[in-house]
Amino acid sequence: MQTEQFREIVEEARSAPSALNTQPARWRRKGDTILIGCDPAATLPVSDPHGIAAGLACGAAAEATILALSTRRMGAGFTDLWGQDDRETMPGLRLAARITLEAQTDPDPLGRQLPLRFSDRGPYEPGPVDLYGWTRRDAILVTDAGRRDWLADLHDRAAMAHLRNRAARRELLSWLRLSPRHPRKRHDGLDRATLRLSPRAAAEARLVLGPLWRPVDMLGLTDRLVGETMQIRSSAVIALFHRPVVDSPVTAGRAYLRLLLEASKLGLAGWPMGVLTSRHDAREEVARHVGIDPERRLMQVIRFGPPGAHPDQRARRPLEELIV
């Protein structure tokens, strides 16, 4: 694999999802081997203290790399290295996975969805959605209004509890790119267009999540900012993605990306409801309510629906930051 070809593969693979669009995955090529590392500077120590979301993002990046190789008929072997907690092989990074080039292979059909998949916060377009034949052993697909409304209510309560932690608000603000002049707007984090916020709402968010939180919360007005009930209730389906508790988040991340690409193939865009899995109490409540086996862990909750429009562009880190 030539250097330019490797850069093209990383350019495609960097489309993989990550919490708050932090993009913690980093790539290094050593001959016919690609190493995936996790950059601790692009993680969420308050919201994700155990690195589950970071590992999920790196696993998704690894799967995206394998799919990008597949479209070029290049086979790949995969080794999950997350459990080794190796921080020496890639200095400053936690080694997540190793991908080894193998014999020529047929293209994976999901590889074509990589450049087409995108996130959409909602509200989603109304109308029927054809989910016929879309089943997964690692996902419960919620389509009924009763459970959807229950999840919406739980999500908003969990989000409020999370954001009453000042450190959590500060962490969230550090990844929001609400000003059109923000220097990282095109590279990472979430901007106003992605969040579907008007200029006024974006200005309010910066103030309420910052210096005005306490007085606004005392007046009972923070629900209007934090709540996502309208977006959640407009979704066509909510996927409860669960994996065996013995799975590394990197291995789970590979399956997670495939779930998102399958939804994209059906014409759906998704948005993670991450607070339902990052908070232990909310995660356990969802698992009990829907009957997830104790031997499995709820990894992510994602709402899906027909998007209103395709985004003009996606914020992605330049290759110079990703290839180390």
Could you please describe the fold and organization of this structure?
The protein is α+β, with helices and mostly antiparallel strands. It has 2 domains: 123 residues, NADH Oxidase; 167 residues, NADH Oxidase (3-Layer(aba) Sandwich). 39% of the residues lie in helices and 19% in strands. The strands form 3 sheets. Strands 1-2-4-3 form a 4-stranded antiparallel beta sheet, covered by helices on one side. The chain has a 4-stranded antiparallel beta sheet with strand order 5-8-10-9, with helices on both faces. A hairpin with a 2-residue loop joins strand 1 and strand 2. Helix 1 crosses helix 2 and helix 2 crosses helix 10. The protein is globular and about 60 Å long. The mean pLDDT is 95.
- What is the arithmetic mean of pLDDT? 95
- Cα(first) to Cα(last) distance is 17 Å
Low-confidence stretches: none
How many structural domains can be distinguished in the coordinates?
A: 2
Largest sheet: 4 strands, antiparallel
Helices, by number, come to 13
Strand content: 15-25%
The rough form would be described as: globular
Protein name: Nitroreductase family protein
Organism: Limimaricola soesokkakensis
GO molecular function: oxidoreductase activity
